[in-house]
Specification:
Helices cover about 80% and strands about 0% of the residues. With about 300 residues, the chain is mostly helical. The chain is globular.
Length: about 300
């Protein structure tokens, strides 16, 4: 990567890491559903004008049904799940579960698209899932006072979110290959906003959220979602998807740091160990740590 590309990669990781912080700051006042609904709506307001400016609106019209599915499974559902989890578990822990997305993506691609799984990738999946279930079992970094049921539901929501992300990756590869990335990004946010519009209105908080909560929502929607998508697709164009996806490994570090710095979240030993295990497994499963082949003699 060029230094400029590396800087954008780090910035993107910082923004996506901050999204877990802002979800923690906004979920308690907005509620999980309104927070997720306003997040996708705000992101759509950022991305749709860019789509029109790039003259790619026709691509959205041509593929709107498939893009709507991606909007549900790659935005509305996971954003809702992580917003719900933010009511119970720390930002850093949510981001570590999010880092397991490529693990679920690899399994779904193997089952659905018949992608080949080499021995190192299978080993990576085993290691990664061991880390996921270890974190869930130890209940690392759970909010003080959370009962067993709410904790289990929060951890389950994180896993549902990562499965949804993994499904979206295979669905996109199967049905949306060749579609302009900005049409996919903007259209999916718009579809997510439409899907969550009515639930957001029905579940609107009884008490008006505070100014800090509104500021958190604004940053979450416009910067951590809208701007982040623009950066992500810029990186894909400049360095390729394989290099761009390495942002996954940087997000937890930023999320943990933001949570500790601004919310005083504790960084527990099980959380660190589980995060390292998940990232190591993900690196193997995605080929980032693929073993070198011996040169032919």
């Amino acid at each position: 990567m060029r230094p400029a590309d590396l800087a954008e990669l780090v910035l993107l990781a910082a923004l996506w890491g901050a999204s877990f912080l802002f979800m923690r700051m906004g979920a308690s006042e907005f509620g999980a559903v309104p927070l997720a609904g306003l997040r996708v709506a705000g992101a759509a307001l950022v991305l749709m004008p860019i789509l029109v400016w790039r003259h790619e609106l026709a691509a959205l019209r041509s593929h709107w049904k498939a893009i709507a599915v991606v909007g549900l499974t790659n935005s509305a559902l996971p954003f809702l799940c992580f917003s719900y989890a933010a009511l119970t578990i720390n930002a850093g822990l949510s981001s570590i579960f999010n880092a397991a997305t490529p693990l679920f993506g690899a399994v779904i691609a193997w089952l659905w698209l018949k992608d080949r799984l080499s021995a190192p990738r299978v080993l990576g999946l085993v290691i990664g899932f061991f880390g996921v279930f270890g974190l869930a079992y130890n209940k690392a970094s759970v909010k003080d006072g959370a009962d067993t049921l709410n904790t289990a539901l929060a951890l389950g929501a994180c896993i549902v979110a990562t499965v949804a992300y993994g499904f979206s990756a295979s669905f996109t590869k199967r049905f949306l290959t060749g579609v302009p990335p900005m049409a996919l990004a903007a259209g999916s946010q718009l579809a997510g906003a439409v899907a969550l519009a009515l639930p957001t209105l029905l579940l609107w908080p009884a008490h008006t959220p505070s100014l800090p909560a509104w500021l958190s929502l604004t940053a979450l929607a416009t910067v951590c979602t809208g701007l982040a998508y623009v950066l992500y697709f810029r990186l894909i164009a400049h360095v390729g998807p394989a290099n761009a996806i390495t942002v996954t490994f940087l997000i937890p570090a930023f999320a943990v740091a933001w949570g500790a710095l601004y919310l005083g979240e504790q960084i527990s030993v099980p959380m660190v160990i589980g995060g390292v295990v998940i990232l190591a497994g993900t690196a193997l499963a995605t080929g980032v740590l693929a073993p070198r082949r011996k040169a032919a003699s």
